[in-house]
Structure formats: structure tokens, C-alpha cells
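hey m, so remember when u said the C-alpha cells were messed up on ur end? i reran from scratch. heres the input so u can diff it against urs
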Amino acid sequence: MRLSDLLSELDYTIVQGSLDTEVIAVENDSRKVTEGALFFCIAGAVFDGHAYAKDVADKKVSVLVVEKDVDLEGNQDVTVVKVASTRYAMGMICAAFYGNPSKKLTVIGITGTKGKTTTTYMIKSMLEAAGHKTGLIGTIETIIGEQVIPASNTTPESIVMQRTLASMVEAGLDSVVMEVSSQGLMLDRVAGTHFDYGIFTNLSEDHIGPNEHKDFEDYKSWKAKMFTLCEKGIFNADDAYYEDILKGHTCEVITYGMKQEADYQATSLNLYQKDGCLGITYHLEGKYQEEVMVSLPGEFSVHNSLSAIAVASEMGVPMAKILEILTDIHVKGRVELIPISDAFTILIDYAHNAMSLESILTTLRAYEPKRLVTLFGCGGNRAKSRRYEMGEVSGKISDLTIITSDNPRNEEPQAIIDDIKIGIGKTDGEFVEIIDRKEAIRYAILNAREGDVIVLAGKGHEDYQEIQGKKYHMDERDLIREVLEEEDVTKICGYNNRYFA
């Protein structure tokens, strides 16, 4: 492809070379460049691609895209293009290189502090039920038809993003739903992506610190950028920062919520539990009048489902299909029910800090369980304060805490557990400690009582345990199955396995 065609949407300066230069590949990793490729010199937090400019030029790339001056020591064979931001240019150039794939798909982007992952899966399920071939890009994985790729970033780098969208077009997909993080917006990972719909879930203080956002105002402003990039914005009108996120928007506004009139409003909320399952029902008002049942617990499930209902109905999905999906929705590692008993409830959730743990435990406490049992550990090589805080939260809210191992990394598991116990020690909470996570899960299942709600917190969708620099396979679903295979299940309270059958 000719360089001039790739630069048509950018402001740039040609430092040397020609706009007629042919480009046969695009790359931002100096180890992967090939002859004839265009290379982006990205100034990252750890490495600066400009430092590799001469080495890459010597590999006979056709073009270097830079934002700083580079010394090629007289190499005049490579075309050098200077732009204000190589990150932004990378998104725009890669979009052009791959044929602007986002314009060939209906693209739904979801941003907010919490709820992004669950909402993406809800929307994907609804669209597929209506016959849309839908891809997904998110925290857990990227899904392209039958292909599933584990995720490394919530929102991948733009070069990966555009390549992925192009693969979706090639696979015959017509739509994609993706999580759009504040980092993804700040680092221009979605540059060159056309969004048909943007969803705002909620906002709370998170991702503030070195290499993230300098303060909450910065975090908030980057979230708001989403609504200058999409055609239609779907906003949680209940959120305290709704008006702030709305400022500067250029999209059509659609609202959802519970506390005030909205286009999609939930009223008459009611928690329900049946045969070990927890969920919530509500009446939908506004554009539709419907009774909605969601097979996930808590008020946050109402907000998540409202946003999914909004985008699916705006895309023409029949309401009957939408309601059917919500009655049996499951998201891996997000309050994920593992139905092995009618007498007690066991859930897997990704809650891995004090804020998220308090949120899920408070939600589950509202169902008035006979006992709320929390099994969790904390990651190694992380701030000890997280351990104290999570221990204190669990000790205050749970009836029983089972302290175990998470990802110890390079620390001793017992040392991490001892730190968690300092937090629990500030409360009157009852606890036991079992280092081996499988044995901890065995203890939780074999000692479950009728009416218990047990939450396995911290691992969520992860299927590994990181120990001394290596990742070992460990999926809590497998651990539960193994326990059931190894034990006399007739002794397990209310055993009625509907998961592994």
C-alpha cells in the first residue's frame, strides 16, 4: 500500500523520503520488523522506540513514523514521517492499512470503572440470539467466531486492535462489543476505530497512580472522551458523575437508570433466590414496559442489564430474545454461579481488592444467607495494605473467612496469609487458614450448611496460579469438580450437581 494513502487522515511532515513509498506491513516491535515494513517509534513508560530507529532502518524497513528527531547516521533509504503523536498515528495508519475494518462492523464500546466485562457478554449473547455474528474484545479474552484468544490488556494496542477487527471482518462477523479502558483512551489504543455505540457504566476512583492517571479528574476526563468518538451514547443517569461524563459529548444521548426517569428505567426491584441460585427482577419502563428477570445478583446487575437492553433494543433485537437471555446469563468469573447444590450457593468472583470485595459481599449479604462464607487470598509482590484491607472487609461482613493462597508470585504464601490475618484481627470475624487453594475449596464445600452463600474471591476468570515466576494451571471450576469426584457427594449438603453433569 502506498504511504500517501495511509497518511490521508493525519497531519505530518516528511523528514526524508517519498510519499510514494510502498508499505507491505506495519509493526511497533523492533524484533519483528521485516523488509518493506512501516515501523512506529513509540515512546513508552519503559522503552522508547526512537532508540531503535537506526537498527530498524538498517533492517530495510520502508518507513519510520516518529515524534522525535532520530539519527539514522546517513541512512537515506528509509522514509521518515514526523507526527505529533506516534500512538495516535499508529491507530490511524493501521486502520487505513487494514481497510478501516471498524466501519464494516457495528462497534459497541463500553467504558466505566465496573461492569464492563459482564455487560459485554450480555450484549454479545443478545445480539447472537438475534442472528448477529458478534465478536468480543475484553479483559478476559478476544473472541473471533470460534477462535478464543486470552487477553493481555483490557483494550489492546491499536496495531493489535485494527488487526483483530480486520480478522473479524474476514471471518464474516457483522458486529463487535469491546471494553474500552481509560488507559485505552488515553494511550490512543482506539484511534482509528469508529464506534456506533458507547456505553458509560459508572465511575469511582481507580487506576490512579504511576503509569496510570495522575488524579481522578484526569481519569474522569479520559472516560468522557468515549462520547466524542461514538454515534450514540448510552449513559447510566444514576451515577454521581453522569453530568461530568456528559460534558463535551458529540453523540446522541440515551439514558438508563433506576433513580430518575430514563429511556430505560428499572422500578419495583426484587431479589430472588431459588435452588441455590441468586438473581433479581424488576419492571422495565420508558421505551418499553416489561417484567425482567436477571440470573445474576445485586443492584449492579440491574444497571448492567439495563445498558445491555438499551443497546440490543436500539439495534433491533426483539425484546423477547433479550428477556430470554437475561434469565440464564453467565459470565466467567463475575458472580459466576457453580450450581452443585440446591441447599447452598457457591459463586466465583474476580473481586481482588478491598473495594470490589466489599461490593460483592454487601450485595450477597442483602440475600440474607444463613452464613456468608468468603474464601480468598492476596497476590504476592503487591502492597501489603491490600491484604490488611481485604482481611478487614471480609472479617466485618463475612460470617466465616477461609484464608488461602492466590498468586503468591515470589513471596511465601504463609507470609501473605499472616498479613491478611492482621486485617481480620481488627474485627470479630471467624476465620480458618488453609494454604492450598484446592483444600480450602474442599473445606468450604464439605462444611457448607443449608442456606450458606459461599464466594470464592480473587481468581475469577483466571485459570492459573503464579508461583516463583511461573504460571501453573489452576482453574477453580476444575478444583470444584475434582473435589466432587474425590468425595462421597451424598454427604454434601443438598447436592444436586447441575454444572458438571
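this time it looks ok to me. The chain has three domains: 3-97, 101-326, 336-491. if urs says something different then somethings off w ur setup not the seq
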